[in-house]
Amino acid sequence: MNWSKWWDDFGWLLAGLGIGIFVARIIFGRDAFCATAAEEHCVREWISASAGWAAVLAAVPTILYLSKQVEDASLFHRQNAAINLRRSRTLAQRVKRQARFLEENELFGELTWHDKMQMGEVSPDFIKGVIDEYRILESYIDRADFLRVEDEIAAPDRFSYEMLMRRIQNECKVLQEWHDGLTALSWENLVAWMTFIYQSSGEYARYLSSACDDYLSETAQFSM
Predict the structure, then answer these.
(1) What pLDDT is recorded for position 94?
(2) What is the mean pLDDT of the chain?
(3) 128 with 192: CB under 8 angstroms?
(4) Average pLDDT over residues 144-163
(5) In angstroms, rounded to a whole number, what is the distance separating the alpha carbons of residues 100 and 210?
(6) Is the pLDDT of residue 16 over 60?
(7) What is each CA distance from 182 to 125, 127, 166, in whole angstroms?
(8) CB 187 within 8 A of CB 121
(9) How far apart are CA 67 and CA 61, in angstroms?
């Protein structure tokens, strides 16, 4: 604590108190400041009486210092909370845009597979194209921001980042084995897989958008 600054700010109070007591002693005489009983000693009486006041005055700097510390801590907490809120709201706005691409990809995938289902035959090149589609979908889902929304804003009810990524990776592995002639799948299996993965990724995108919308609405009043 800066005692010099404290004295500059409050020292005049102590000086004024001392001068006031001295002037009052001259004006009102001894009787106003000392007991009237002859056996009482004036100086001893004043020293005893002033001990409590001295303790109070000695505590004033400590109280002022602690008050300043509490005020600084409160300001630091408010600033940190404002920064964290701004970051979370920016995250929610960014994920909303990313989820829109994922949801549009669901519609594109369903339209594409509606046409492909009419083919009824599977060639190695066709399987390679399916694997490429899986990888594109994986790139849309594989975002750290989606995990942050799950951890910091709202946990998913059904489909999660980890579940979708694991399913895509497992199915890509099986498709690659099919392409290499190590295993065999039916056309019905392939259609069911693609339909499910597009629909589940779309549902995941809608969960992200809804969670972010709710969060932005709930925190709007605190972002001013």
Answers:
(1) 92
(2) 77
(3) no
(4) 89
(5) 11
(6) yes
(7) 15, 13, 21
(8) yes
(9) 10
Tell me the chain's radius of gyration from C-alpha atoms.
Answer: 39
Burial of 102 per CB tally in 10 Å (0-12, 13-18, 19+): buried
- Distance (Å, rounded) from C-alpha 108 to C-alpha 120? 20
Query: What's the CA angle centered on 117, arms 112 and 120, to 5 degrees?
Result: 140
pLDDT digits over 55-79, tens only? 666 666 777 778 888 888 888 888 8
Average pLDDT over residues 12-26: 60
At 160 the three-state DSSP class reads coil
DSSP string covering 58-119: HHHHHHHHHHHHHHHHHHHHHHHHHHHHHHHHHHHHHHHHHHHHHHHHHHHHHHHHHHHTTT
| Residues 160-181, mean pLDDT to the nearest whole number | 89
All residues at 6 or more sequence positions from 137 whose CB lies less than 8 Å from its CB, including other chains: 105, 109, 168, 197, 198, 201
Contact 142, 204 (CB under 8 A): no
pLDDT score of 36 more than 60: no
- Tokens of residue 28, six digits: 């009102």
Q: Quote the tokens at residue 48.
A: 């005893």
d(CA 212, CA 220): 12
Q: Which two tokens stand for residue 182?
A: 């190590």
